[in-house]
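Researcher: Please translate sequence to structure tokens.
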Amino acid sequence: MSPQAIFLEHESWLRTVVRSRLQEPEAIEDVMQNIAMAIVRQRETLVGVQKIGAWLYQIAVRQVLMYRRTTGRRRRLQDRLNQGAVSEAEATGPLQVLLSQEAQSRVGEALAQLPELDRQVLLLKYTEDWSYREIAAHLGVQEETVEYRLMKARKSLRQRLKSFVEEGVVL
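Model: Translation complete:
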């Protein structure tokens, strides 16, 4: 049986499982799509599955948890940004707020220019506040490697930001 046929056959009760675990009705379709994609990605393991319902249930619950985790991180980041913008706007004038937003934009551009691994290490350390140990476990490397990569990434980011300053871009 194909992954698509299995999904279509069990879609109704999977949707109920997702709906019962999410308080956001608009998110149900996103999670259902993620479930379908997970089934297709895991089609090789489908042959050895004894209890298809239990297997699908595990996939559904895992996809709901990943959705919650992702949206929770986004909300926390947005809240932090909003709190910073509000307190900054109260403390300074509109010109300072605009300059600060421009600087944040430039930092984002500089981050985007970094290699993926460098960017990932920096973001895990400074936006998620992960320890070297947590980053090392996530990447499957030694803590010393994380320390080295972080130092290298900061240096590279500093150079990119310096080039913005040399170009006369506001930071």
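Researcher: Any highlights?
Model: The two ends are 58 Å apart (CA to CA).
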